[in-house]
Task: structure prediction
Amino acid sequence: MPVYDYKCNECETKFEVFHKTLKEETEVICPSCSSVNSRKVMSAANVGGFSSEKSCEYAGTSACSSGMCGLQ
Result:
């Protein structure tokens, strides 16, 4: 199931919506204020079980890309 990130135009809440198909057929409702006025936003990819945020002291260095940190 595709997961999309949205941001409410009314209360600025960020939230995720799971869609059953790639075609968006359901109305997206903000979980905080129940507004239907929201927009899809770009999100960071989650690859290999780790988010794109730094996960260890070696993240973003050659040690991390070489597998020395043990997270790969």
Q: What stands out?
A: Confidence is low (pLDDT under 50) at residues 49-55. The helical segments are 62-65.
